[in-house]
Amino acid sequence: MLKIKIISFVILFVLITLPFCYSQQTKVKKTVLIICGLSPTQPAYRLILSGIRQKLTEQFGDQYSLHTEYLETENYPKDNYPKEKFDIYNEKYREIKLDLLICVGRNAIGTMQKYAEDYLLDLPTVSIDFDFSNYGIKSDLRLNKQTAVIGIKFNFNNSLTTALSLFPKTTTVYFVGGTTPFDKFLMALAKEASKKINNEKETIFVTDASMDKILHQVQSLPAGSLIFVPSFNTDLKMVTYHNPEAIRLISTNASAPVFAYSDMGLGDGEVGGYIISFERTGLLSGEYAVKILNGASPNSFSAAEKDYYDYVFDWRQLKRWNLVNSDLIPAGSTIMYENISFIDRYKWVGGLVLLLILLQTLLIANLIRLIRKQKLMTQKIIETESKYRNFLHEDRSLRLGQLTASLSHELNQPLTAILSTAQ
After folding, report:
1. What is the CA radius of gyration of the chain?
2. Model pLDDT for residues 231-253, shown as the tens digit of each residue
3. What is the rounded CA–CA span in Å between residue 285 and residue 290?
4. Which residues, given as ranges, of the chain have pLDDT below 50?
5. Among 10, 31, 377, 395, which residue's Cβ finds the most Cβ atoms within 10 Å?
6. Distance separating alpha carbons of residues 343 and 361, to the nearest angstrom
7. Could you give the CA distance from residue 173 to residue 160 in angstroms, rounded to a whole number?
8. How far apart are CA 74 and CA 414, in angstroms?
9. What's this model's pTM, rounded to 2 decimal places?
10. Under a CB-based contact definition with an 8 Å cutoff, are residues 162 and 330 in contact?
């Protein structure tokens, strides 16, 4: 009988644990390959890749594998990427079962289409790149028919309008740019957008200059100046800076507020405004990747300007230019790097505490006054009662004396008569 019970218990345990073990074995890790068109030093890559990792981790935990490669196409002549270098990637991932491909940045899609093997070209893809179609420039951002596209379109008009609305007294706008082909291309787009600026405002373009010369120039700008940095990756001396470092140097030395097209200078001296948020772009890319890995069609997604543009401002720069809590800041804007002192942060709480302490002090003072008044009243009552008792005592003594005198008189007369009769 005992043997049958043990066997039954073992069978029941196996039946209960088998589905769990099976599910663990069948839970396959997702494998994602990210191909970045430029070098890993690009500041935007950090925010985009961070957003992708965040969304993948939230959905799959540690049940995914992420591979990242950088083509560094900026180091080679245009349309002349070395095939032998890309063959390394073809061979490296040929035996790995990839579930998703993510192409990030300029030249990634074009290089993939030219050199990638079919197993890479047939993967579901998320493509993240600039889309210049609104400027009449053809932008092919699709790797294949299974590509979810996040085409980032520049809106320099809104960015400039927002900057000028914050500083309505601006008379001169300085556009400062670097010397790389991409720097010059974005400067050309900024020039086009500047034509829509009020004719009363002067526009000056600072290009093909060394950083030292630029810093010297921005140190003594006249009042009513505003600086806009479309893109700055290298200066005339071919020194590499990238946007964050260039904006930090310009903002530190400039006597005017500094604006840019994206959040790549936010926190380094850029005021902010209506800018491209690469942080939001990374999170959006991660959301697309998760949905595709869970079975959604890549063609079911469509990114709009509101998905990657945002009103974002650096609180420290707003404070520098006396714009904190200004009505000129668009409603719903995101304020970053807020650095409020302990006193400023809790001044209302402190004021309330001081008010409560004051009220409590007044209450205590009033209670002390009432207690003293009560003591005086009690003392007067005690004194009155004492006087009353003394009065009663004296009255009784007086009455007793009168009674004694009366009794003495009444007794003396008969006694005297008796004594006279006896004699």
Report:
1. 45
2. 999 999 999 998 999 999 999 99
3. 9
4. 20-26
5. 31
6. 23
7. 10
8. 152
9. 0.75
10. yes
